Amino acid sequence: MNRLLAWATLIAALLGLAGVPVHAQDHAQDHADPLAQAARRQVLVMLRLPAQHFRPDASYGGGYLKDGGSAARRRVASDIAAAHGLRLLDSWPMPAIGVDCFVMEESDDAPIERVVAALAHDARVAWAQPLADFQAQDGGDPLYPLQPAGHDWHLTDLHRVSTGRNVSVAVIDSGVDADHPDLAGRIKVRRNFVDDSGDVAEVHGTAVAGIIGALAGNGAGIAGVAPGVKLMALRACWETGARPARCNSLTLGKAINYALENGARIINLSLAGPADRLLQALLQAALARGVIVVAAADPRMPDGGFPAALPGVIGVARPGDRHPAPSTLVYAPGTDIPTCAPGQRWHMVSGSSYAAAHVAGLAALLAERQPGTVAQTLRRQTDGAVAARTGGNIDACAALSRAADTCVCLCPSTVATAPSSLRLR
């Protein structure tokens, strides 16, 4: 009966979603996306920061504090642009990895690879790279009975031990609807690294944030895997019509750097793209600081692609995605997942993006109880033989039991009073 009621509630919510974009599985076409079209002519040029780090101003509008060092580096960047026939567009300091990042654009249709190769031989340049393109990986709460993690991961039992209280999770994605009833009070900070349009509520970011940290027990919609977290909604991706959310090296780099400089304990990247030197350097800096990085696997790539396959990153696939064994990926629920949608609505989503969100939430539960060993605990409680089942291959109960050093799900007192409600894992 609860499941039928949940379906009825979801259908009612879906009827209100007419006109809300949902993601198609087709690749976005550059000509329909001005940001992506412009990025094809742009290159990122890194200059080393001196020992004294200078940060962006409080508005994060892209400027520097007014210091002589930043002005000198900008003059150097202008000289480099002129020498290589480029136009200097923008700049952003990345103190987490000790570089200034300058955006330059070629104007004569020269192959971008040739431009990067020429810059690589300029002694003033730490490194240069194309502006790479990334895509989101789509594929008492009335909807709780429909949540695979509700029964496969025993969320109610997990929440008796941990809710991820006060753990900061950076959702680096498209915009998040902070006014959604299931996300009220969950958003610690919102930043837009894409443009100057302010706070934007978009489909993919709202869905990911809901899976990670939606309120539990509020009588609305779903329960997040970690309903006690503090979400950092960092908009580094944008949505164009019904196409998948897209991001690039610079927007993602800005967001990751912000997360590192502002105390994120977990970074969720529900996206994939080509190997990228700037993002790799930032993620390696995050891992060196003990930050947990969770990324969605690209189902088209045998190893899960970038950044999921980067050593130290927890790459996440959904059951049914075919990745060759042995694989370093973990598997989590990612098919027909009810979650939040902009405009106080809910909808169903599928894809490794949402599997990654589940693992980011579980990591927050573990981090509340045992911060130093989250990645090791997650990987220790996986079973490659059961990756195809709905809930994936993570034994969430065992993982939290280990982190909290207490029984979580199949406890003796529970077995004695309600044996018929239990099933062995």
UniProtKB/TrEMBL annotation:
Residues 1-24 form the signal peptide. Residues 164-379 form the Peptidase S8/S53 domain. GO terms for biological process: proteolysis. The active site is at D173, H204, S353. Transmembrane segments: none annotated. The keyword Electron transport does not apply. Keywords: Hydrolase, Protease, Serine protease, Signal. The keyword Hydrolase applies. InterPro entries: Peptidase_S8/S53_dom, Peptidase_S8/S53_dom_sf, Peptidase_S8_Asp-AS, Peptidase_S8_His-AS, Peptidase_S8_subtilisin-like, Peptidase_S8_subtilisin-rel. One of its GO terms (molecular function) is serine-type endopeptidase activity. Belongs to the peptidase S8 family. This is Peptidase S8/S53 domain-containing protein. It comes from Massilia aurea.
